[in-house]
Structure formats: structure tokens, C-alpha cells
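Minutes, structural biology subgroup

Action item carried over from last meeting: produce the C-alpha cell record for Alpha-2,8-sialyltransferase 8E (Myodes glareolus). EB confirmed the sequence was re-checked against the source entry. Recorded below for completeness.
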Amino acid sequence: MGYFEFYKGPLEFNSTRCLELRQEILDVKVLSMVKQSELFDRWKRLQICNWAMDTSEANLFKSTLSKCCNAPGFLFTTQKNTPIETNLRYEVVSSGFFHINQEIFQMFPKVEFPFSHRSDKAASAGSAHRGDIFGGRGETSDEVCVGGGTGCDTVYVPLQEMPYYRSQFKKCAVVGNGGILKNSGCGKEINSADFVFRCNLPPISGEYATDVGEKTDVVTVNPSIIIDRFHKLEKWRRPFFRVLQMYKNASVLLPAFYTIRNTLVSFRVKYLLDDFGSPQQVYFFHPLYLLSVSRYWLNLGVRAKRISSGLILVTAALELCEEVHLFGFWAFPMNPSGFHIMHHYYDNVKPKPGFHAMPSEIFAFLHLHSRGILQVHTGTCNYG
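Output recorded by EB:
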């Protein structure tokens, strides 16, 4: 029996009792205010409440993200936000600048016709489908005719070159790699999301699928994985390609412009997929976006040498999705009931100390959950 089944209950998220329980979490302003066991107890008590999004709170939070970070415009480098001949500053300032020449510029995505809306007539004409709907709800747009002939319809084409736009997806799952996912049975619920983000090439097939699902739309790759496990792709190209094939047509997202060390190996991923004729897209985080996100969370109390890939994806998802659900995000050696768990759902390898501030990140997520901005799943799932 899952460790939360005793606590699952019918109370509405906005009931008097649940408002009190939500406030118990919010009253903990900093993680050091209470013992870990006390925080866990407060979190367990909150599980009797059926989470519901607080639309006004969520929209307010998303508006602050839009002003500070702007994922639809700057999540990764595009031909619009990073023109040819740009001297792009690395996220780590000491690495200096990277000059964008013609070859590198051609690696960046360029969306030709980013439809933001289409009528039923245009849809039935087959002139656009879900995979073609790119761009954003920009303030500036052109009009084009779709459908062909006299029956064509006018739609607005925003002048924005980003493959994802604001609130494009209804329900998103951001899947961390925490041991909290092991034996959760959350795979079906994760697979039911409209869009699924994953971090750092985690295993998802075979024995893991029941707990973590297999659907993947975006997966990040830390260049250190390529350097350490695949010898910088100087020889081990096909083994790396086989790993990427596990995620089918998922887009691959890399921090090419974090430091100089990351750049060439990130470019090699793009070259590799092109050479093997893969349909998978390769995108590079825009360093300005990463800096903005780091500053944003620093102001909210997350102090780390570098924020995690998971936090970056959660931040992006809050802008790109109407509703955000987190799975596998838990940075403590014990689950909320006090039982020891592995660090990852697939191994117990600990991270380098002092690099990330995972407990602070998870604490921030618990606050967002309590405010109705996103939902953190830390128990078993009973989907369907």
C-alpha cells in the first residue's frame, strides 16, 4: 500500500480545512525554520485535499515569469533572438562570448508559418495540423490565407520564431529523476499529459515504464553525460544515438552556451542526429534565459551555484502550459513517511555537494503547490 493512501481524501482544495493545511506549508518561510520531519508531517496532512489550480494565483505568478524570463521568446536560441554575427555571451561570464557565424546560425530553429489560430474550415482542409501550430500570441502579427482557393480562411501569423508559445499545452508533466518515483505507479498518469518534459536522459523503458511512463516531448542532456559516458562523441556516436532513440521523436535540449566546455559537444549532438537522419530536433538553451531564471529563483530564496535542469524545465513549463504537474521531484533521503529512498529511481548515485540546492528547490515547489500554481505528486498514482 502506498504511503499516502491513508491520507488521500475527498476534501476540496479551497475548503476551510484545506486552506488551513495549505497555510501550514506557507507559514514555513525558509526551510531551516522547522525540522525536516515537521515539514513532512505538514505535507502529509495536506494530502487529504484534492489539489485544484488557483487560476488567479497561477496567472499572477506566470505574469511575473513572463516579465522576467519569457520562455516563448528566449527559452532557446533561434534565428530571431540570436541573429547571424551575434557575439553571444556565455552564461558563465568568464567563458566570454561565442560568435554566431553562418554555420551555427543554421542550427537554430526558424519557424516559417507559426499559426496561432485556425478555423474549423481551415482544419478540415488539412492545411495545418497540431504539429504545425508554432509561434506565440505576440502583439504583432501578419494575416495569411489557408485552405486554398475561394474557401480559404484568414489566420493570424505571429512574428515570433519559437517552436513553443505561451500556454500552448493544456496539461504538462515535468518528470524529475527522484527515488520518490520508484513503485509510484505514475507511468499512465505521466503518459496522459499533453506534453512531457524529462531531465538528463533517464531510463524510461522496461521495468521503469510503470512508474515513470515513456512519453517524452523534450529531454535535456547535460554535456557532462556525453563527455563522461560517450567520450565526447568522438567515437561512441551510435551508442549515444541508440539512447536518444528511446525517446522517439522528443526534442533534445542542451546548455551549449553555459561554458566553452559545453559548446562543441552540444554541437556534435546536432551533427550526429543530422548524420543519422533522425527527425529529433536539437535546441540550445539561450544563456540569457538561464541567467534570468537563476536570478528569478535567487530572489525567491533558491541559492545555488547552479539551479537544476529540473527547475529550469518547471519554470519554462509554467509559461508554456496551462496546468503543470511535477513527478519525481524530492531531494530528501526519506519519503514524507520517513522511509529511506534511493536518490534516483534508477540508482543511488549522489550529486556533487554544494553544486545544486535541491532541498530549497523542492521547498519552493511545495509552496507553489500550496498556492494552487502547480501540483507536486509525491505519492502513488491511481490513474484511470
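Discussion: The chain has two domains: 11-74+166-377, 120-158.
Next step: EB to file the record with the rest of the batch.
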